[in-house]
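Continued from yesterday's entry.
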Amino acid sequence: MLRFCVAALALFACISLARSAELLTEPAGRIIISVRDQKLTFVQSGVKPITYRVSTSKFGLGDDWGRMTTPLGFLQIVQKIGDNAPAGAVFHNRHWTGEILQPNAPGRDPIVTRIIWLRGLEMANAHAFSRCIYIHGTPQEKMIGRPASYGCIRMRSNDVAALFSRVTLGTVVQIVPDHLPSAKQALTALVRPPNDGMILAHRSEKSPAMVHKNSTARL
């Protein structure tokens, strides 16, 4: 029995390391999000950076459970949801309800249009995936440009659809508290995050099956 347990633990460790190693293969390009500027830029070698206005959490920064804050550091795109959904498509529990909202619909604040689900790559953001930290569309477009979310990164519907089409699974997202770097600095920063941080973050996360469905209600 003891030998079986040891073998099972060794197998689990190998799978975890293998999955972390897979994430090290970073596609060309990176997303950088500035909390101070409330802006997101997508940088790619040989391509002019594209910048959008966003909204991060109105509750500040961090990765603690129940605080509804935006995490800092290196993260990575692990799921893309909503491909070909119309602008304003309302999502509940990551499924389109069939409803479509116009921008700034009074009294409504659901997730709309697209969902880009992030996983933390460092201990400082290890709970991001299980906290359901997304880049997603919002009908509250009048609030874009100032902190207004419940932890996620909100974008206008047209902007998040455009970004969604440009990024791939594995694209690294860096959330910084300061100003966006210059285009030259951003392109110079296209390097991989530390391997050990990725592995530690992977071990700390809950599996997708443990994510509470209602945690996507207001983000």
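--- second protein ---
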Amino acid sequence: MEARWLLGYLLSKPDNWTVVIGDIIKKGGCGRDKARKMIAELVEYGYAEREQSRADGKFGASNLVIFDEPRSAEEDQSEPSEGVAFLPQTEMPAPAKPAPVLPSPAKSALSNNLDSENTDYQQERDARDDGSEEKPEAIERAFRRWYAKWPTRDKDSEYAARKAWQKLSPEQRTACITKSPTYIERAEKAKISVPWAGAFLTGRDWEKLEDPKSDVALPIVHGPYTRAWHAGRCAELLRPLFTAMPSLTPFQRRMVAAGGEEAEAILRERRSKYGWPKVNTMDERATDHKGVSVAPNVFRISEKFETTHRNGELAQAWERFFARSGLPWLPIPAGVEWFFFPPVPSDITDLDAAVCEAWSAFERQVNEGNSNDA
């Protein structure tokens, strides 16, 4: 069981990653002997193969090559190995004809070389080494390793990034090292561009991971009939109409075929009832006092939403707009007195025209936010 865990852990690392024995001990919560036992089992069952590099006719660091599937005995015999010990043996005499280092057929995932840059151990050490402004060499070493993993490094200004790095406090640099991988991962999932390294450091953008209005924050659930909930519901109603609706009854078909206001009323009712299933789900959850998560850009827009009483003239104007547009109006449970809607322009006295303009402005804001995030 332990060896199976170790295999999964090693295969989960990128191809250029190196895991040292200390990583296994720490991640597996075991001692050195147990870690070596797990490694031996991987070798025994063909999931790992020992490989030792040579330089200038001398033995170098010992590595394990990890395989997704076990190697058969035939494969082992077709590719003779040296059978060297796992630990480095730099004191042994050099062979007469040093063998060349063969390319690894899979991930070179395990090493005794504690100075390797791409290891879990090294990332944690970077954060510790960066803990003192009195060690400029440690600060520079941590910067180089952080910058080497930043997505824009190939076309970025390393000079600007280094200056911004040096202005950070030790605590900020530690937080940056720890949280940058999460920031990159969430930015990729949200399909937003990662900023230039210098801008990221200057703005301390890793702190946005905890800001619910940030595009890289985890979505949070907003309670029913809050500003964010209203904005999320309105944003859903901007989406294309869901066309998979129940069939018209024979009577409805005749009415629609005849045309006129009654036909339009039937079609509006169907759009309102079946056109936005997610809105229906939001309304059902709201009756059970359950909220929903709202996109960060919509959450930001919601902060400008205006309050209107459920029986006020402005709320009635919004209800008329929803009816004309075939949009489902809000369910109004007992105890809910206030609604939130996009702000209406103050220079338009006709409320029906004002709410129409406010809806158009809201749609532009949402679309602009979606375009910027893509």
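Residues 73-109, 112-117 have pLDDT under 50 and may be disordered. The first strand starts at residue 19 and ends at 20. Will compare against the first tomorrow.
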